[in-house]
Design brief:
Distance between the termini: 95 Å
Order of helices and strands: HHEEEEEEE
Number of helices: 2
Radius of gyration: 23 Å
Largest sheet: 7 strands, mixed
Helix content: 10-25%
Number of strands: 7
Oligomer: single chain
């Protein structure tokens, strides 16, 4: 009986020392707005992309995929890009995009807590459509 009692005390001590896993998780980054707006229709030319998050994040990667499947990398922290931290980012395209069709913005961001090495990430997409502008009259 005495051995069982020691096991119960040891088990209870372990529960007190190890916090539940859900307490360690950081909330994932949340993209609250983008320009061009998600699923929005805009007129060419588009020369920059704006991303707004609910709270500060580390921007990991932003890639624009054009209607003809070209990939335009606007930011890639894992491939030598500078660290970008904040909640509002405006990224310039190397040249304005003008082709009609649907564009996809592939976005990766993360948050981390250096005090306990916890982290959470987001990988999401936003899209917009470039439509033919009004005819000159």
């Amino acid at each position: 009986m005495m051995r069982n009692w020691h096991r119960i005390i040891a088990g209870a001590a372990m529960l007190l020392l190890v916090p539940p896993a859900y307490a360690l998780e950081l909330p994932a980054p949340e993209l609250t707005a983008a320009f061009p707006p998600d699923q929005g229709e805009v007129q060419a030319p588009i020369s920059e992309i704006t991303l707004i998050f609910a709270s500060p994040v580390d921007l990991v990667e932003v890639v624009v995929v054009t209607p003809d499947q070209q990939r335009i990398v606007l930011h890639d922290a894992s491939n030598g890009g500078e660290d970008m931290k904040g909640d509002n980012f405006t990224l310039s395209l190397p040249q304005p995009v003008t082709m009609e069709g649907t564009y996809l913005i592939d976005i990766s961001a993360s948050v981390s807590d250096p005090s306990d090495n916890s982290a959470s990430s987001l990988s999401t997409y936003s899209s917009f459509n470039i439509t033919k502008g009004p005819e000159a009259g």
